[in-house]
Design brief:
about 260 residues
């Protein structure tokens, strides 16, 4: 527990936003962010060539400072996330994630901050999300298990958090070693499982993030790598529970089917 929460004060948030050649979409994403004095935003440009973030990144977002971190080449999501969190003030209590093109509800950060402020044993909080097509039209709602117990069971099979909707404790992140580049294309799943070794998890029932999805995205192009890495993480955390067997079998079956089929 940090000094701020021990004294009954709200923890400060650093929002890390991943960016790669999205242009004006960055402004639209940041327009949905509502933070407080003392909070901060870090935008990580992961090697953009056509539309570098420096041409679209404001100095402030909702009155809080925005820091731009540029990577010379695209080294993957894990490298961008590591760079963003590393640039955060070490005294910041909470790290929130959001991807460019995704949108937060206006109360998202207040609600997740309040939950972590009240629940000192919780290391990570997420929420349900709504997936939208590139025009913003809603496709479907995706809910996750809410209780710590249900999350731990579900994590034996697949990730029980949606990455752009999570907020976690900065000190918990540091204590587990942060994002691991040993698990490319599933680094969030690996981190979230690690965070559950030092604290509890929770998902808020209401959707707090609108996630943009499109054909050809990272998940589509590298789905096989994601599935293979997920299986590696399941094996690394093996506990002989029936759901661990099911997690391996499910990932194996998904290797034989298309993402579009699975999504439908």
């Amino acid at each position: 527990m940090t000094a701020a929460t021990r004294e009954g004060q709200s923890g400060r948030i650093c929002l890390v936003v991943a960016y790669h050649d999205e242009g004006e979409a960055l402004s639209r994403t940041l327009a949905t962010v509502r933070l407080r004095a003392g909070d901060s935003i870090i935008v990580v440009d992961a090697g953009s060539q056509r539309l570098p973030a420096r041409g679209f990144c404001p100095e402030q977002g909702d009155g809080v400072p925005v820091t731009l971190v540029g990577l010379s080449v695209s080294e993957g999501v894990a490298a961008a996330a590591i760079a963003g969190v590393s640039a955060a003030d070490p005294h910041t209590e909470y790290i929130a994630r959001l991807d460019c093109r995704d949108r937060s509800t206006l109360d998202r950060f207040d609600r997740q901050r309040a939950y972590l402020d009240r629940h000192a044993t919780c290391s990570i909080v997420g929420s349900a999300v709504i997936f939208c097509d590139p025009t913003g039209a809603e496709l479907y709602r995706h809910s996750h298990p809410e209780s710590d117990r249900a999350i731990r069971s579900a994590m034996r099979v697949n990730c029980a958090f949606t990455q752009p909707a999570v907020m976690f404790r900065h000190d918990a992140y540091v204590s587990v070693g942060g994002y691991s580049e040993k698990y490319p294309w599933a680094e969030d799943y690996a981190l979230f499982r690690s965070l559950l070794t030092v604290g509890e998890g929770h998902n808020l029932a209401d959707p707090l993030v609108y996630c943009s999805t499109m054909d050809g995205g990272i998940s589509q192009r590298h789905r096989r790598r994601q599935l293979m890495t997920r299986m590696k993480i399941i094996v690394h955390n093996w506990d002989w529970h029936p759901l661990s067997f099911w997690g391996l079998a499910r990932a194996t079956g998904q290797l034989a089917t298309s993402r579009n089929f699975t999504s439908r």
